[in-house]
Recover the amino acids of this structure.
C-alpha cells in the first residue's frame, strides 16, 4: 500500500496511471520540471506515454496551463511542409500559399509546444528551430520581420538522440539546447505492478463503448498479461484489450482472446493459490475426460461422475468447446 499512499501525496494533474516505483519517481520529477521554463527532452520507447508526460508538464505549469498545448509529430509531416507548419508563412510565400498561416510555434504562444519524434526533424529545419530556442522569435516563411513568441518546448524521441548526433543526423548544439531537463518514460515491462491496474482501466473504458459478452479477465488472462514482455508498451496493452473484447465469446477474457499464452511454468505450476489450483485441476480433468470419450458428453460425464447438466455448466465455466 506504500505506493498508493505515495501516489495520493503527489498533487499532480495527469492522466498517467500507475503506482509502481518508477511511475512514482516519474510523477515526482514531472512535478519539479513543470514549475520550470527550460526545454525538456523525453526519451523512451513508443507507446510508453511520452505525450502524456509532456501534457502533464504543461498542465502543471501555473503560467502556461491556461494557454495552448500544441503537438507536432515531426515524422508525420512531409519535410517540405515542415518549415511552414512550424514557423508559419505569409500570403504568397510560395505556390499555393493563398492565405497566411501562423504555424504551430506561434499557435502555442504563452503555452507549450510538444515536438514528438524530434529525431525526424530534417537537418534543414534544425538550425531554424535552434535559432527560435535561443532567441525566442520566429521568422515565418516569406516574412520580412521576425515575431517574438513565448513558448516552452518539450521534445520527445524513441531513438537515442545521442546516437543520432554521433551519426551526424542531429545537430549537437540543438541536442544540448533541448536536453536541459530530461525525463525517461519507462517500458511497461519495468512497471510490473501497473500492468493489472492499466488492464482494468482499459477494460472498464472499453466496456462502455463495445458490444461484448465479456465482463472480466480470467485468472489465466491476468497471469498471461503479467508474463508478456510488452514490446509495444501501454499502446499494445490497450490494443490487445480492445481487440479481445470485440472477438471474445465468453464472460471472461482468456489469454487466447488477448493473443497471449501462459508460460509453461504457470500452466504446470505445483503451487499457485488454492482456488486457482482447483480451477486448473478441474479444467484439466474436463479436457482429459472429453478427450478419452472422443467428445461424447454422456461418456465423459460418467467418467467424471457428474450429471450431463453439470458437465455442460462446467464446460461453459471453463470456456471449453467440443
Ligand atoms: N502510464 C500511462 N497511463 C495511462 N495511459 C497511458 C500511460 N502510458 C501510455 N498511455 C496511453 O498509451 C497510449 C500511447 O501513449 P503516448 O503518450 O502516445 O506514447 P508515446 O508518445 O510514448 O508513443 C496513449 O493512448 C496513452 O494515453
Ligand atoms: Mg508519441
Amino acid at each position: 500500500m506504500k505506493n498508493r499512499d505515495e501516489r495520493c501525496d503527489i498533487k499532480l494533474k495527469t492522466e498517467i496511471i500507475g503506482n509502481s516505483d518508477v511511475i512514482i519517481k516519474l510523477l515526482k520529477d514531472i512535478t519539479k520540471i513543470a514549475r520550470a521554463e527550460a526545454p525538456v527532452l523525453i526519451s523512451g520507447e513508443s507507446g510508453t506515454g511520452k505525450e502524456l508526460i509532456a501534457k502533464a508538464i504543461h498542465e502543471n505549469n501555473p503560467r502556461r496551463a491556461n494557454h495552448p498545448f500544441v503537438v507536432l509529430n515531426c515524422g508525420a509531416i512531409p519535410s517540405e511542409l515542415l518549415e511552414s507548419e512550424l514557423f508559419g508563412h505569409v500570403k504568397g510565400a510560395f505556390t499555393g500559399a493563398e492565405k497566411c498561416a501562423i504555424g504551430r510555434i506561434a499557435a502555442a504562444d504563452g503555452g507549450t509546444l510538444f515536438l514528438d519524434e524530434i529525431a525526424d526533424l530534417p537537418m534543414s529545419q534544425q538550425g531554424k528551430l535552434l535559432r527560435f530556442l535561443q532567441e525566442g522569435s520566429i521568422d515565418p516563411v516569406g516574412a520580412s520581420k521576425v515575431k517574438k513568441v513565448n513558448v516552452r518546448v518539450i521534445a520527445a524521441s524513441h531513438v537515442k538522440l545521442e546516437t543520432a548526433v554521433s551519426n551526424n543526423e542531429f545537430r549537437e548544439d540543438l541536442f544540448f539546447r533541448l536536453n536541459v531537463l530530461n525525463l525517461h518514460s519507462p517500458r511497461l515491462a519495468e512497471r510490473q505492478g501497473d500492468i493489472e491496474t492499466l488492464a482494468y482501466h482499459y477494460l472498464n473504458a472499453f466496456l462502455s463503448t463495445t458490444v461484448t459478452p465479456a465482463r472480466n479477465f480470467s485468472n489465466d488472462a491476468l497471469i498471461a498479461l503479467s508474463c508478456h514482455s510488452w514490446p509495444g508498451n501501454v499502446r499494445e496493452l490497450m490494443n490487445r484489450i480492445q481487440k479481445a473484447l470485440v472477438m471474445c465469446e465468453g464472460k471472461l477474457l482468456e489469454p487466447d482472446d488477448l493473443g497471449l499464452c501462459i508460460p509453461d511454468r504457470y500452466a504446470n505450476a505445483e503451487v499457485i493459490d488454492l482456488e486457482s489450483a482447483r480451477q486448473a485441476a478441474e479444467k484439466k480433468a474436463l479436457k482429459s475426460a472429453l478427450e478419452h470419450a472422443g467428445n461424447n458428453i454422456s461418456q465423459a460425464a460418467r467418467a467424471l461422475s457428474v450429471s450431463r447438466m453439470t458437465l455442460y455448466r462446467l464446460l461453459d465455466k471453463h470456456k471449453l468447446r467440443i
Residues 45 and 242 are 21 Å apart (CA to CA).
